[in-house]
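Late entry, zinc ion complex.
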Amino acid sequence: MNLGAIFIGLALLVLVIPLVIGPFRGKRHRKLPPPISADAVPGNHRQQVLLTLRDLDFDYQTEKINEEDYTRVRTQLLFEAANTIQSEQQEKVRIEELVRAGREAASPTEKCPQCGRPFRAGDKICPGCGSYLTARCQSCNHANQPADKFCTNCGIRLNDRLEQG
Ligand SMILES: [Zn+2]
Ligand SMILES: [Zn+2]
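Prediction complete; structure with ligand written out below:
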């Protein structure tokens, strides 16, 4: 074997190594979740701004833009990020209010027979006096209102010794 053959052999080895390792590396990369495009997700404006900010930092470090532009654009972006975060929080508060209003509208309030305080349907204990707000049917265990005389599920007459709760 002469020197030329050894050299060609080494060259081939160098070429082959990436081909052998390549598929493994490719596999590992495929397991990662696909990057989410900021445009594809509505309301992901903040992420977009932060990505732009990162690009800007990179451009500045690689001296693609001068310091004056960098400072100006960066300030703008930070402003925008702050605004976006603020409006996201406002939106969240608004949604929570809507959910609460919707929940209250969906459950008409009744009054506790003991203290008269209104409670929501589904409440088991009165928020005002702590008394039981449901009366279990002795036959089917359905939760009736304390004032009910007959079970609203199976129709039997509820006796006086109802299991409360
Ligand atoms: Zn009460
Ligand atoms: Zn019943």
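Helices lie at 3-31, 45-61, 67-106. Will revisit in the morning.
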